[in-house]
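Final report, section 2: Outcomes. Of the targets proposed, tRNA-dihydrouridine synthase is the one most frequently requested by collaborating groups, and we therefore present its record in full.
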Amino acid sequence: MADMPHATLDSRLAALGMTSPVALAPMAGITDLPTRTLVQSFGAGLVVSEMVASREMVEAKPSVRDRAELGAQVEGTSVQIAGRDAVWMAEAAKLLAGQGARIIDINMGCPAKKVTGGLSGSALLRDHDHALRLIEAVVAAVDVPVTLKTRLGWDDDSCDSAALARRAEDAGIRMLTIHGRTRCQFYQGAADWAAIAPIVQAVTIPVLANGDIIDAASANAALAASGAAGVMVGRGAQGRPWRLAQVAAELGAGPAPRVPRGTTLVEVVAAHHAALLAFYGKDLGGRVARKHLGWYMHEAGTPSDLRRRVLTAAPDAVAPLLAEALTGPQRQAA
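The predicted structure is given below as tokens.
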């Protein structure tokens, strides 16, 4: 592997409480509290909650907010908010800071139509002045660090996030995460890590590179191309909750995790499955857990017929199948 120019933790990241330059991306329906807790148990510089709609969070009944269990107070956790109204964004930030949030992250990168149609997420890249009003309101509302996650621009004709980054830094943003695609690209094509470099050069705050970073090799390439202070990993952690710690270790910025194999892997997956059932309830938890089980079995090379048995089993019947699915003879011989 080529020499990595960011082998030690940047002091600016350490000042935010990060323990390595590798963060877990917020992924709707995936990075819930049980999953973030598992990733953190192996080692992660930072984990970011699933996106919270600011107004809905503020207007929710206290019992609903309590059930959200964002883990706001957990060390090494950032809570991400989204919205289009400065008042609601500020109120949500204050509410979350009051619950113990260590970092508030503002989402200006989500490309989903249901988000941009409400003039939130990456739709804000079309109106920097309005985006800045939201940023200023959130920063003024809380005493904890506020960070920003966004993209290169709305489309190929408006890759102007360097200008937004400078204004965001002036407004008090403490860290940026840049996904190396425009909104109109969604997740198509390859992330352009080199296009993040002008944004890194435009600011003095740390920048994390995001997009298509799934292992140490891609992290190394993203850092070299962008000059970023760290990386954010999303799908690379699916079925591999230890992957962030692996990446940090291979980049020289943390101890190598003990990657679970055999019966230890079965125990890890069973515990994750049980945590999801406890968190969501048996019915919903069973449905949510299927995608995680699918990723684990894909990683283990589980035969398709056995995968189907596991994924169609009742929640209570999953655990007895895991030893065969994850450590059967066909995997041991692979």
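Residues 1-6, 330-334 have pLDDT under 50 and may be disordered.
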